[in-house]
Amino acid sequence: xxxADVVIVGGGCMGAATAYYLTRHGAGHVVLIERDAQLGTGxxxxxxxxxxxxxxxAANIALSRESxxxxxxxxxxIGSPIDFWQDGYLFLLASEGSELAFAEAVALQRRxxxxxxxxxxxxxxxxxxxxxxxxxxxATFCPADGIADPNGVTMGFVRAAQHGGTLTVLRECEVxxxxxxxxxxxxxxxxxxxxxxxxxxxxxxxxxxxxxxMAGVALPVVPERRHxxxxxxxxxxxWDDAAYAGRTPASRLMVIDFDTTFxxxxxxxxxxxxxxxKSERPGFDTTVRWxxxxxxTETAVTRLPALADASVTHAxxxxxxxxxxxxxxxxxxxxxxxxxxxxxSGHGFQHAPAAGRILADVIVGRDPGLDLTPFAFARFAxxxxxxxxxxx
Length: 392
Ligand SMILES: Cc1cc2nc3c(=O)[nH]c(=O)nc-3n(C[C@H](O)[C@H](O)[C@H](O)COP(=O)(O)OP(=O)(O)OC[C@H]3O[C@@H](n4cnc5c(N)ncnc54)[C@H](O)[C@@H]3O)c2cc1C
Known about the structure:
Elements: E1 2-3, E2 6-9, H1 13-24, E3 30-33, E4 50-51, H2 58-77, E5 89-93, H3 96-111, E6 117-119, H4 121-127, E7 138-142, E8 146-147, H5 150-163, E9 167-170, E10 175-181, E11 184-190, E12 195-196, E13 199-202, H6 208-213, E14 222-232, E15 254-257, E16 262-267, E17 270-275, H7 293-303, E18 311-322, E19 329-332, E20 338-342, H8 352-364, H9 379-382
Helix pairs in contact: 1-5, 1-8, 2-8
This protein binds flavin-adenine dinucleotide (FAD).
The site of flavin-adenine dinucleotide has 42 residues, from helix 1, strand 14 and strand 18.
């Protein structure tokens, strides 16, 4: 039987970040297990790459600050490029409820020392070529928010962790069971045979509920499909052409119409956009529902009329990993040796560096330097957790 000090289930950004910090903390032999042929093909490979400080929960703001600071020095420290841009996030607020919630959050963000600006609709229009702000009551902007490449981050962490020689990566290997003996984790069974380990980390993203159930734990992480569409201008044209000047932002600014959840940003030669579907029910299906595109486009052209001339060249769907209060679990799952880093509710990519560092600290018995109550598994039993409001 193979043995490991730590087994990590799931090779997305969370598994990768945890592996990196565990190897740096001298946690022994770490085995990262991914059932797909490649790492980062779950939610991590399907996300919009957005990274922001603008959260409503102070605990999430702390994760953002640490993670975004690392993204800024990722290439120097971790050794891989991640196509990181800090062109800001602009939230458009078109209802009284959103305006009130964001006003409260901006006050908190400023108390915590962040540069977050409260804008009028006219200010928002001025800074965003082509944006139609009809019905917008106010907007918020943080210039230090931005976008980064999820694959670069994931593979960067794994490559850096492999340098130390204490990480083994198993691909095309599915974890089929978690062995628990006398109330503590003893190992996992996999399609490539059993592995004995006294620590198992559940980093299975939208599948984290299924993996926790293997140890008899009810972890409330629910998968929910979300679409992303890529639009190109007229054939042969580019968004940078003079014809589009003034009709779309030239920067990679992320714009989010909070009340409809429609968002967009420039992505390479294209324009990436998406929107939540209120009719979507929990499930693992990631088939693209092209019949949803007209509904998205109807909203999209009201905010960015230039999209009316564009063609959608491709689309994909991925899974959000929702918890009841939209905050993740980072820490123990109530069985000795069983940990989770899961349930990030659609904003996990940007928190992977801090979350991975924190969980590695917890596992090796170091002080993570942060109150982990908002991320504790036990909060679901008590109810009443405030959680995160700014979920798109
Ligand atoms: C459309 C969309 C847009 C998003 N936009 C953003 C954004 O702009 N910014 C942001 O921060 N976040 C965003 N997110 C959320 C972000 O993608 C996720 O929070 C994050 O990727 C979660 O990473 P993960 O490693 O936990 O999960 P995953 O990347 O899904 O990794 C889990 C892995 O576990 C593997 N696995 C599962 N079960 C097993 C098993 N039994 N054995 C072996 N392997 C297993 C899976 O194959 C998978 O590769 C978005 C998500 C979607 C779907």
